[in-house]
Amino acid sequence: MIWFLPDGPAWLSRNVSLELEQRRLFPWIAVFFGLGIVLFFQAEGQPAIWAPVSAFALFGAAAMVFRRSLAVVAAMIALAALFVGFTAGVIRTRSVAAPVLTRVVITPVTGFIETIEDREGGKRLLLRVTGMKDVADAVRPERVRVSVRNGEGLSPGQLIAGTARLLPPPQPAWPGGYDFARDAYFKGIGAVGSMVGQVRRIDSPEGPGWSLRLAASVDQARNALTERIASAIGGAAGGVGAALVTGKRGLIPESTNDVLRGAGIYHIVSISGLHMVLAAGTFFWLVRALLALVPGVALLWPVKKIAAVAAMVGATIYCIFSGSDVATERSLIMTLVMFGAVLADRPALSIRNLSIAAIIVLMREPEALLGPSFQMSFGAVAAMMALVPLMNRPRLEGAGGGVVSRGVVWVGQAALGLVTTTLVASFATAPFAAYHFQSLNPYGLVGNALALPLVSLIVMPSAVLGVLAYPFGLDRPIWQFMGAAVSQVLDVSAWVGGFSGSTLVVPALGSAALVLLSLGLILVSVPASALRWLAVVPAGAGLAFAAMPGRYDVFIDRDGTGAAIRSRGGQLSLVGRPSDFVAEQWLRADGDSRSADDGRLRQETKCDPAGCVVAAAEGRWVAFVQDFAAFEEDCRRAAVIITRLKAPPTCKASFILDGNDLKERGATTIRFSPEAVELRSVRKGRETRAWRGAETHRAEMSTAPERPRRAACSGAGFP
Predict the structure, then answer these.
(1) 646 — phi, psi (to 5°)?
(2) What is the dihedral of CA 330, 334, 340, 341, to 10 degrees?
(3) What mean pLDDT is predicted for residues 299-308?
(4) N or C: which end of the chain has fewer CB within 10 A?
């Protein structure tokens, strides 16, 4: 496209020269590193490690050989970075490999408690398993996550025994949905479930290892501080305040979570970039301010660098104490890189430093690239960095030059900066929110503008002071002061969340739209020249794809217990018995804001004890068969048969998806077209099947006389 412009080649040459002057080629190493990780997760089976290592060595050597040609060197380094990313994925996957349960079991289990989280109606434990009856040691999970109804007296580090009902970590409810099984795999969790009956504490002759003792000690300290903060503040504000400090969110009522989501500020209870920056910034400011009070120290010592070191130490301790969650570790790495730049007399906020942080994070945890936390945090920071040059315009001065005038100008500029950065971050993270959560919060700008000043100026500084006062037992007044600010945050959230349309449920963003919008974000963030205008092309194409979402006509549960079928009216109808969680995942993916218990979800279905039928588009009947007795009529009259049973070979339906198919595929979606059926499944990807006698079948259906389905059905089923 550029080449067809009158001054296209010259324009491109000028801007590339500017990119080289600004040293903007380095951030592209992080981009190609991430692309290599994406390619790894698209690979089938277990890729050999020698292949990407050899490719990296080949392109690295080529870069050395052709080092006199900048264009060739840049291309070779980019390809080398790509295969380093692929190698990181291979190494990470092999390093965390551990047995994963493949079937549902109810069996006695013994294990050490690694962490405990209080939740409504009980506790959730992470166990390091030491014994599991009826499961061979070779296939026994190393860690399991279980819930207990009565966990009184349990503490991290204890060895417990009891009977557990365990099942494999669940795969996505639909292809493209949240993959808990993948996250569990990289956390070493091989099964999930609940304890059945009494949980006994038993003595261990050997005791836990040092790593478990350390993890248990940290978690026990976190639980103690969580309880202290929650009891000092009380109510929902106590749960939120405790989560802001320790990362334990189990005490927050679900209704409060909904309020925070509706206001677009739920991110404040997930310890990540915002909390790490505020905590480190508080340490930095306190140390620098205290040292500046001593004239000799302020004049002779590198006060700024000393404060940076204190901030790095404080941020590291905060990360460890808050549980070292994945998002928190990523934020710590970014923070350490930024303050490390201060020590090296480099600009702290630069796209180069952000790229270094991204490479370090992805080298440790390549799987993070696929999750919303990494995408949203790095995307928001990159977009705001692209805005920095626009924000560094000469500041306005107060007209009279007095204290009041300067104060008004300062407040105005701070408010403008907050609104602008929030707006930019909201736009940058919207594609990822639509893709992962199928929701947008249009009033998030208002919620963040009102809540973040309280969080930044009162809540987080109070949290730092409260933690420092905690060992002395003088922390309760500080927590109560912080709680008053948290209560105001919740009041603001309730007010903003009460606006009509505060939460918009949108259809799931397709992969193509996400890739194009992400490319647009990269192109607007990385270049320093007018090349960033090229972002308009992928961003525009991505928005076009997002405006025309490809909805599925059928969602089928992983084990075939239920399905959602689009009826003639255009909305999904539920059949079978899918769990409420799975049903709501389907509805959100379709952009449907109804809840799973909405009675309208079954109005378009005709059911009897043997199954259900739904009148779909183009005159087709879709049958969901639950009993063998229904096959005779459903195979004759329905165009589509869906069942967890094995369909008889004599079934003449145009399209059949039975139990054997679902065992191979897992959760599956179907999209109908006049010529074919497109399937997409969790385990087998995408496939297209032609209709079997579709035209003849539809003609027969259109002229079929009305008759009862079966005498036992009392008229339910086909008309």
Answers:
(1) -90, 120
(2) 160
(3) 84
(4) N
